[in-house]
Amino acid sequence: MSTYLTKRLIYMVLILIGASMLIFFLYALTPGDFVSGNLKMSAERKAELRDLYGLNKPVFERYLIWMKNALHGDFGYSLAQQKPVLTLFNEYIWNSFLLAIVSTFLTWVIAVVIGVISAYKQYSWFDTIVMIFIFAAMSIPSFFIGLFLIKTLAVDLKWLPPGGMMTTGSNATGWAYVKEVIHHMTLPVVVMTLLGVGSLTRYFRSNMIDVIQQDYIRTARAKGLTERTVLFRHALRNALLPAITLVGFELPGLFGGSIIIEKIFNWPGIGQLYMQSFGSRDYPLLMGFTMFIAVLTVIGTLISDILYHLADPRVKL
Amino acid sequence: MSTMSSEVVKSSRQDHTAVKSSLWTQSMRKLRKNKLAMSGLIFVILMFLACFVGPLFSPYTDGKINVTAMNKAPSLKHWLGTDMLGRDVMTRLLQAGRISLTVGLASMLLSVFIGSILGAIAGYYRGIVDQVIMRIADLLLTIPGLPILFILGALLSEWKVPVDSRMYIVMLMLSFVGWPGLARLVRGQMLSLREREFMQAAVVLGLRDRRKLFNHLLPNLFPLLIVVATLSIGGAILSESVLSYFGLGVTPPTATWGNMIDSANNVIDFEKHPWLWIPPGFAIFSTVIAINIFGDGLRDVLDPKHKK
Fold first, then answer.
1. pTM given for the model
2. Shortest distance, CA A304 to any CA of chain B (angstroms)
3. Model confidence over A102-161: pLDDT tens digits?
4. B28-52+80-302: CATH homologous superfamily?
5. Hey, is the C-beta of A259 within 8 angstroms of any chain B C-beta?
6. How big, in percent rounded to 5, are the helix, strand and coil portions of chain A?
């Protein structure tokens, strides 16, 4: 186990270095830099600023500088906002996390309940409706369903606010603040839950169908246990266990925000921050964000593999 | 004696017909019984026909700007209304479908092609070739997909790619992010296939590598590949629409379902002219759902080992 972990960690670091190089050069290739977008600035001032930010150095040298600082935990300053990248992340990430944790929780609860019921009643009309719902949820274009719900529920019916985290100009505190945020996050959470719930419901449904057909379920029934006990004590546990391997894969989604949803709902999260920085070519922020997600992805995969081994010791690491 | 021999003839004839009904015909027969999957297929075919043939019957194919009919709501004359240049939205929707469907189909073909060839080579030769290919795949799988697509999309504008050929580059971009997952899948299958008895027979026969790979190993993966390919068309259509919506994919005047929804970014069009952006959204949704339902039916038939 420990040799496996060492090997795995070394490989993770190597992959991340490779990824950082590739991302850095790709961002360097993207047209324009932070200074060139500013129309008011004179040519000399631009040259001066480029010099200051080190934008006129060769790409590889810039990469080495970035990497050296990053290894010291310094991800640089956002050029547009003149704040350290990590400070900005800290400001925005919790807004993203709020959306993600609530919708992930809802997604899992709904998926387990519906998945298990429809597996138990396989081929019933309920199951058929669930299957159609699953396919629908898996085929929705995320940005379109967001726009569509804003148009119908927020603009036409005025049930919910169309976007943002607070009403403009509001300075509510305490309970009023909490209520306002909940009011604003309802739509994005609904959309995010809708987008995730399809594949997960399907996963639990198929797990449960597999488990119900096992011999030990037949044995449990033959012993004369009540259907309730068979279902909840014998079947459900075994159907849920494999799902802990999915926990790791949720990691990037929990902290990485959602570029599309946050953009559509104008939610002040880290994905929205990324879109802004992409427009202004604020490369320290872009690099920081992309690497952050890459690190979360790699760590998430490792966690999943370890949990897989813990849940089912037959799986070798 | 004679009756016996005639019986033998008879039974051998039956055997003959049994042999004729190959795995493929059996699978297709099973598929035809799956009503849900077949309705998905029929919907996709109708959508293709509507997009590729439909505009020929429209009086508004030229997309000419018509100042007298701007932003008109849906009517008998213009089934889905007109846009701010007075163009017929229905005709544009179908023409956009040509691009969206083509991009989805072509980028799927390309990523399946690249992914299965590289995955097969990696799994067959193992060693250093495997290392190189799979490490590149790991690298691409580590980097989040949307940022990569955004960067590549921004590069498109920088290199002044002509509007007409942007769709080809978008296909390349989508297959660039699509192949690593496929390569991983194919490689895994390959590792187990190459140890099977029929491959030992191929070695004994002294077949060349190329023949072993492409005539004996890859055909065994066709059922799986067909399923994965079908299901990935939907994903490609969705990705293209996201990119084009953000203005980083195919750009106007070439219409795609994604960039038609872009008019929702304009507050007035968003609130007052929903016929501009809601129909393309439903076009994407219905096409992708039909493809996924059909793909799932295909999977039941062609890949029975897969957990349902």
1. 0.85
2. 15
3. 999 999 999 999 998 898 888 889 998 998 899 999 899 988 999 999 888 888 888 888
4. MetI-like (1.10.3720.10)
5. yes
6. 75, 0, 25
